[in-house]
Structures are given as C-alpha cells and as structure tokens.
Specification:
It contains 6 helices and 7 strands, in the order E-H-E-H-E-H-E-H-E-H-E-H-E. By secondary structure, it is of the alpha/beta class. The structure holds NADP nicotinamide-adenine-dinucleotide phosphate (NAP).
C-alpha cells in the first residue's frame, strides 16, 4: 500500500485519481478547497484536507496539518483555464492573477513544503500540465494565459527537479479529457486518462525526473 496525496480532487481528473487509487487499496489523502466537497472524498475512502492553492495562508495552514507523512506519490492537479481569448484582446489583471496563482504560484509554494516529504529514491511528485504548454506545438494564441501558465509550471518543475535529485519530478499532460474544463467533445474519459496516467507514472523512475511527458508515456517537446 502506498501513501499518496492528490491536490485538487473535488471533480474531474483529481477525483478520478482518488477513485482509482483508493480502489487499488492505497492510502489516499486528498485536498478540496470547498468544505462541501469533503464528504465526496470521504465517500471514496480518502482522508480529506482543505486547501486553496491560490491562497498562501491556506497553503501554510494545510502544511501545518500534514505532520510526519512520507509520501510515495504527490500529484498537483488543481488548475483553472481562465479567459479563452487570444492576443487580440487585452488581458485583465484579475484573470491573469487567478490563472497564474492557481497553476503556477500554488505549485511553487507547495514544492518547498512537500518535496521533502516524498520518499527518497522511489517517490514521485507529478504536476498536471498540458500539451498546450508546449512552445514547439504552439501555433495560435488562443487561450494564451493558460498556455503561458502551464509553460511556466513546466519550468518550475524542471528547475525544482535539480534541487530535489532524490525524487522524480514530472510534468504530465493528461490528454484532452471530458471534464468541466475539457468539455463534452474531448476524446478521453477521465477513467481512460487516469488509467494511462497511473500506468505511465508507475513506469517512470528517478532517471525520468525533469521530463515533460504525455499520459501515454510519449515525450512532449518543451
Ligand atoms: N480536461 C482536459 O482536457 C485537460 C487537458 C490538459 C490539462 N488539464 C489539466 O488537468 C487538471 C485537472 O483539470 P480537469 O480537467 O479535471 O478540470 P476541472 O474538472 O475543471 O477541475 C479542476 C480542479 O482544480 C481545482 N481547483 C481550481 N482552482 C483551485 C484552487 N485555487 N485551489 C484548489 N483547487 C483548485 C478545482 O476545484 P473546485 O471544484 O473547488 O473548483 C477542481 O478540482 C488541471 O490542471 C488542468 O489544467 C486538463
């Protein structure tokens, strides 16, 4: 049985990670930002915690409740898309701040608190990024705030992997998934995406740290 923490588990990919990992018999701890979602986690057999990754005080309060856990895996799933607009429209500061604080700053603030709590040599710290973060694959500015945030997240993970050489730190794309964010036309169900993500995570080792990879193990160019 492994000890696993899922950050951002109220719905979508995060909740499906909790479902599948709990069903496999692992000890799953998971976070939601709204008290009303705590029950959902309890029903799935997970130990619930409250955490708003865009709030430094919430991050500090969460870290203080974690005690002496040693995790085999932590997955940072929390994310927002923000404005769907492109470079033809001026970005609103509040919208930029919400996306960057959730997708980037939250991850940066949690890395220093959580990376030391991951089992050396075999432990993994995974960050759910997006194919839209790939500079090489980018040919339009549609959703550019989100794209910029996930590219920044990738840099955080790659940079931090040098500071924590004893754990495997990965940026991963879950594919295009039918969730509130992905929408109804996405080709993958959360079940399919998470099955593949978990298999790929299982197959990676310390040698893979700092890589950006797809849910199906294919490398993605930065
Ligand atoms: N779906 C896709 O096709 C797709 C593709 C590429 C990457 N991704 C990435 O996959 C991750 C999960 O996305 P999803 O498709 O499952 O989206 P989703 O259904 O919209 O779920 C987003 C999750 O993030 C949580 N969250 C948002 N802001 C938060 C905050 N400030 N603090 C804590 N939790 C917060 C939400 O909690 P609340 O319920 O409280 O809002 C929710 O649990 C995201 O990082 C997303 O960028 C998704």
């Amino acid at each position: 049985m492994k000890k696993i923490l899922i950050i951002g588990a109220s719905r979508g990919i995060g909740l499906e990670l909790v479902n599948q990992l709990s069903n496999k018999g692992h000890h799953v701890l998971a976070t939601v930002r709204q008290a009303s979602d705590i029950k959902t986690l309890e029903q799935r057999g997970a130990s619930p915690f409250n955490l708003d990754v865009s709030s430094a005080s919430s991050i500090d309060a969460f870290a203080n409740t974690l005690n002496d856990h040693l995790f085999d895996l932590i997955v940072y799933v929390a994310g927002v898309f923000g404005p769907r607009s492109d470079a033809s429209k001026q970005v609103k500061t509040e919208e930029f701040d919400e996306v960057m604080h959730t997708n980037v700053l939250g991850a940066m603030q949690l890395i220093a608190l959580l990376a030391p709590k991951i089992r050396p040599e075999t432990g993994k710290f995974v960050f759910i990024s997006s194919l839209m973060a790939s500079m090489q694959a980018t040919d339009s500015s549609s959703g550019w705030v989100y794209k910029t945030s996930k590219a920044a997240l990738n840099m955080c993970v790659k940079a931090a992997s040098a500071s924590y050489p004893k754990i495997c730190m990965l940026s991963m794309s879950p594919g295009w998934v039918k969730t509130d964010m992905g929408g109804e036309f996405a080709p993958l169900t959360p079940t399919q995406s998470v099955q593949a993500l978990l298999q790929t995570i299982e197959d990676t080792t310390l040698m893979d740290s700092g890589r950006f990879i797809n849910y199906n193990h294919d490398p993605i160019p930065y």
